[in-house]
Request: fold
Amino acid sequence: MIEHINECAPTKKGATLSFMKLHIAQHLQDTLPRIYADMTVTGLYTPDAGPAGKRALRNTVLSLISKLDGGKQAAKQFAGADNMTQQLSALANLIRAGQGDETAGVRSGPSDHRHPAASISLRL
Reply:
């Protein structure tokens, strides 16, 4: 892995970052689902450091899981999201995995009745 990073031109840093994330995800593939589950925050939103840190770590772990499963866990998170933090993280990972459209079961725009005030409409 280090050889790949050393040979990478500055203009290819996105590809290098993607390569590193995939390598990390593959190395931690047995641990990631447990961490993802352990970082679930329930109850009302609070900006306190503990819950905020759990949400951030869970979203980071979701991005690594999405590298391995092509966005399957992100689609599940989006479908079951009860807040915008979960929705947006899941949607970002679905888009990165090439699954952020109607065929992936992602509803966006006015048809999303779970959060009508926070509906997401994207034109990519």
Observations:
- Helices lie at 2-7, 13-27, 32-38, 49-69, 72-80, 84-96.
- Residues 2-104 form one domain.
- The radius of gyration is 16 Å.
